[in-house]
Design goal:
Elements (H helix, E strand, L loop, with lengths): L2 H23 L3 H4 L8 E7 L6 H11 L6 E5 L8 H4 L4 E5 L3 E2 L18 E2 L2 H14 L2 E5 L8 H7 L1 E15 L14 E13 L5 E9 L5 E10 L2 E6 L11 H14 L11
Parallel strand pairs: 1-2, 1-3, 3-6, 6-11
Antiparallel strand pairs: 4-5, 7-8, 7-9, 9-10, 10-11
Amino acid sequence: MSSDNKTSRRTALKAGLVSLAGAAAVPKVEAAVRPKKPGETKIVAVMGDYWHPAVSQEQHVREIFSSKKDWKIYFVLASRHLTPELISDADLFISARYGGRDSIGWTDEPVVVDRPQGDIIWTDEQTEAVFDNVRNRGMGWMAVHCTLFSGRKDIEDFIGIEPILHQEIQPCIIRDLNQEHPVTSGIKSFFFNLDEQFDAQIKNPDTTTLLFRSLAVHDKRDAIGGWCLERGKGRVIGLLPGHYQWTYRVPEYQEIFWRAAHWAMNREIPPYTSA
């Protein structure tokens, strides 16, 4: 057998393997909307934008829930894929996105020169699908940090809060934790070295439970930090800390996040072991 023939076969084989590897590296969208398996807990998360690092948010959220081997977390990388089909069997929806467009348009190209325009998030279809799944099917919703600034009054009404303002980034103390609620019971006051303190007003105190408050160290502003309420068959919990990645590294906040996920899904809350 000639060396040329060997080379051509080797080249063809190598090319085929590269092609297969490339195909495996770019999953089809259909795989993300497959029905969940028996016993699986399905979490859909849309987090990260220009001001909030998506990579570290995803990494830390996965770490917080890493002991849950039957929990599958589907992170939405382009907002067009936040579809009614994707969340139709989700047990929990986690959002940390303000309104407008994705900061970077999605492409599966290995090297990018010109990116496409980013997708719009919080369309009417997306918003109504989330509302419907919470209210009528019992999906939990964790509305984190900048979800507060969705730009939609119907989202503000549904999560039960009205945004007031946001303060400059500074140290914040989390305090006045509700010792009567399972999400915050037994957790003492703790500290973020830096975070963006949002302020808000609860729309209906009769149906909404305050979980904790935050104190901005420089501005001395006292503000709502976390709350929860029920909507139909489902539960909504709001957590305003979360601007920087190290917010999700604080053990007390990790435990609140862990407990909040279980509470939102109306499940028993097991002890949290720090990732």
